[in-house]
Amino acid sequence: MNRDTEIALLKRCQALLESRTTEVMSSEVTSPIDRYACSRRFAAEMSDIFRKMPLIAAHASELPEPGSYKALEWLEDFPLLLTRDKEGEVHAFANVCKHRGGKLAEDGEGCSRRLVCPYHAWSYDLDGSLKTVPHQKTGFPEFDLAGTRLMELPSAEAFGFIWVQRDGEGSLDIAKHLAGLGTELDHFAPADHVIFDQQVQDWNLNWKILVEGGIESYHFKIAHRNTIAPLFNDNLSIFDEFGPHFRSVLTKKELRDLKTLPEEEWRIRICANVLYSLYPFASVLIQPDHFALVNAIPLAADKTRIILQTLVPKDSLGSDNAKQHWQANFDLTRDTLVEDFLIGEQIQKGISTGANDAFTFGRFEAALARFHDITEERLAAD
Length: 382
Ligand code: FES
Ligand SMILES: [Fe+2]
Prior knowledge:
The chain is an alpha+beta fold. About 25% of the residues lie in helices and about 30% in strands.
């Protein structure tokens, strides 16, 4: 985020604080309940949205050097294999051997010059090319060893993350995909961070309930009264759209200090958390001295795997004090999100009761309405 944007956003928030109001849309909006629980709709969201967009599959530091790889169960149980080849290039492959389909690498991370299938030991370079086939001359004299490569998905390393797209071919233009947010994100140097700690957990709720909970601050004072509520202003946040993505500014109590501070000392990271909601799901939450990535793999209409990663500056892990500081931050973010997820699971259970035909978004829950507009447009386009 450049300095002009930072000042402009802070002025907008300060004006709202002083006038004791917040930004609103022109009317309330309803969201039909079947958006959250229908398996046919879920399948359409996967095929028409998730499969067609670049998604964050890892932070770049998870493949720290040539030879690094990471294997995981990804969208729709797709076995994904991320690698960094000897030239330092990142690749995304199906984690599936070309012989008879063995799973090449167990889920997890590692570093190796070659990946060897555990079934009959066909081996692959980390650029995906098949290198050796035991007993090739006898068994596979006609097999095109030189022309065989693992199935590759479009991928890119950009703005500190590794992006993968399930469907499609060719390269990914992440700057274009981020519609202007890329350079802004770059100001926070996401590529110069490393993962301090992470939590991966499955929750019984629809992915859109989680998105909704992330883009309004109406609930902070109540739902987060035991965690972050004392740090934030009640229901005082703003958002802007960049293509399908949002930037939200969730203001903190320090916003009131701007009145007495010269403008050159204004810092948005002190007065607010800046949240980049990268459609469809990933959230990059910029905090005062580090950031968090909240990412998801939707598993079913009522089940979502959530990945929380706390990312801290590369050179900040030296002392025990620093580690305690990052641990406290990780714990607070995790505990806050768990509050959201538990409420979300209750909402999901409530959906099947038939108690509501629709949810209602208040005028200051405009980001939720826009998020659903964008999703509906994408589903209708197909
Ligand atoms: S299935 Fe991989 S070597 Fe046979
Ligand atoms: Fe929340």
